[in-house]
Amino acid sequence: MGVAEELEAMRREALAAIAGAIDLARLDVVRVAYLGKKGSLTGILRGLGSLSAEERPVVGKVSNEVRQALEAALEERKSALDASALEERVAADAVDVTLPGRVRMPGREHLINMITREIVDVFVGLGYQVVEGPEAELDYYNFTALNHPPAHPARAASDTFYVRDLSCDGVDATGESDVLLRTHTSPVQIRTMEQVKPPLYVIAPGRVYRRDIADPSHLPQFHQIEGLVVDEGITFGDLKGTLDYFCKEMFGHDRRTRFRPHFFPFTEPSAEVDVSCGICGGDGCRFCKGTGWLEILGCGMVDPNVFGYVDYDTERYVGFAFGLGVERIAALKYNIPDLRMLVEGDMRFLRQF
Ligand code: DAH
Questions:
Q1: Same domain, 216 and 277
Q2: Model confidence over 152-161: pLDDT tens digits?
Q3: What is the pTM of this model?
Q4: Based on the domain organization, do 128 and 193 belong to the same domain?
Q5: N or C: which end of the chain has fewer CB within 10 A?
Q6: Ligand 1 contacts CB of residue 15 (under 6 A)
Q7: How close is the Cα of 326 to the center of ligand 1, in Å?
């Protein structure tokens, strides 16, 4: 085979190799094999000197054509491969704008805190101040100074969580000690009166504890809001007007209230307050057990015995007090059938409010 045919065969072979190179690295291997320092075409060009005078220009011309053809093919293949590499990268980075977005659920205030804030706001609007007391409380503040006799049933270890003081010998078998988890917010009344002289208009929100098994209407830990007013010339009419105003603010101006005689050790007289049922408007339905009324709080005129514990002048000052359960108000306002739903942390439920 003459040199010219050899070159022609090399051109075909090289062009096929270039077309078949599937990436830039393989394309470069092909380039080096033909056009590199030790490449086959380079070898032929180097050998031109040994050819005869007639052969040299012909072979020289054809070799140059082959080299140009290969260089052009290499260049073309290279840009094709570059373009597809770019396409691949773009495809890999592509954003599918039809996918649904990632939803971020922001946290929010718990219903109990919301209701507490609403209730506190109503009284702050009337000029009351917010006060607080400890959740681990002394028997003295929780019971004794609130006029509970020594044998009052609420003092039983079956109703109240007592804090055992393990550092003391002689803790009895029931675990009773003089430290307990407060069973109501009423001890804040005593702590406040110890600190401040009348006139006094305060509201005390907080957590309380009772030894109850959780069921639809009981929780062993819940929230109360206590109110206390002490001033000269306060009457039961002031108490009624205040709580009637509160109920209308909280539940709506079409709601009515009624005061039923009741007993609490620390108030005399005492009452329980009912608000007219929001479901039936007072006609009687399943929600209000046919009575047309829903019980929402306890209240009364402060018993002078209580003032005796804090050295308030019972001749000069009169007071009223009230206590309400926040979970109960939340349940009445939003028709929640089971108080346990408020502490289970199920966001599908809690997000509704
Ligand atoms: N402490 C009472 C309870 O937990 C509620 C209560 C009733 C508070 C009458 C008061 C009140 O201040 O006057 O059941």
A1: yes
A2: 988 888 899 9
A3: 0.72
A4: yes
A5: N
A6: no
A7: 13
